[in-house]
Amino acid sequence: YAVQDEIDDMSLTPWAGFVYTFPEHRGHRYAGRLLFFAKETARKNGYHKIYVSSDEKGLYEKYGFRYLTDMPSVHGYITQVFVCDLD
Hints:
Blueprint: H1 30-44, E1 49-54, E2 66-72, E3 78-85
Antiparallel strand pairs: 1-3, 2-3
């Protein structure tokens, strides 16, 4: 849960950022637990949306996120931005 991730657009906040599962721990839905916590935290803080940037396809959609757009990251490459409505 972060105010900003790798996208410089401060109008998009908060973020479920920096999600990574080591290969030997994949398949246990740990990412889903983290995303659930981030979404609940955002909701409790009065937000109606939460964002994630990633090049993963199919992961975040399983947890209620939908593709929003491609945007440049602060690292200089284009990445996908996903949004999840919290209402």
